[in-house]
Design a protein that fits this description.
Layout: H1 5-27, H2 33-50, H3 61-76, H4 83-102, H5 108-126, E1 132-139, E2 142-150, E3 166-169, H6 170-173, H7 186-196, E4 203-208, E5 214-221, E6 224-227, E7 230-231, E8 235-239, E9 251-253
Parallel strand pairs: 2-9, 3-8
Antiparallel strand pairs: 1-2, 1-6, 3-9, 4-5, 5-8, 6-7
Length: about 260
Amino acid sequence: MRIYLDLVLLLNFSLNFLLLFGAGLASGYCPRLGRLSLGAAVGALYAGLTYLPQLAFLAGFFWRGVFLLLLLTAAYGYGRQTVRPGLIFLLLSFALGGALERLTTPSFLALLGAATILCVFCRVLRGNGQVLVPVHMESGGRQVQLTALKDTGNTLKDPISGEPVLIVQQSAAEKLLPAGLSGKEATELLSALQNAAPQVKPRLVPYRAVGKEQGMLLAMRCDRVTIGGREAGTLIAFTNTVLSEKGQFQALTGGRL
């Protein structure tokens, strides 16, 4: 039987992209489409290499695991946020394999249709559940990457400029602070930052939580903030509250962010 390598690459890229996208939807984690495309390309490349006689050994279990890790890391990044969508991607792959066995005449369109149905199922399954997005912050040459929950109820703004504020868990983002300033309360940290790093323009931002809880959060301006791969406002506020007991996210975004 003649096998066309270009069709193998195109089919595997399309299937991988749909399954990676579906796994992201089901897990609530929304990486950039560029990252999903990169992960799909890794999977397609692996599939193509296994058809070359001199590289047939890559079809073994060990190399499958290696390329699976590369695929998932390329698509979702390296960290805890990769585990959940990675497991769902595996389940979707098994489901697609089961569908393939039941197809009497598997074709390009039939496989794409099956993968699309799985993707739509993931979207319906997720419904209006939590949506997580990657966040990247830079300040004074220091960088922090974490995961944020899209919280439409979060309308925190700077009372002076009206700019929306990203709320971050202080314990997860203390690397952004100059050395020796970790573990301080908001008022102490404000004074210390004004002396050590006035360029970040520290200030206190009032907040009101559900119920009657209210107070002040320390806010500072970063050099750069991206949310879901897109440029966002550079104002962030620190909270000592653990935002997710399971560690799924360490920041809250919402409003106009």
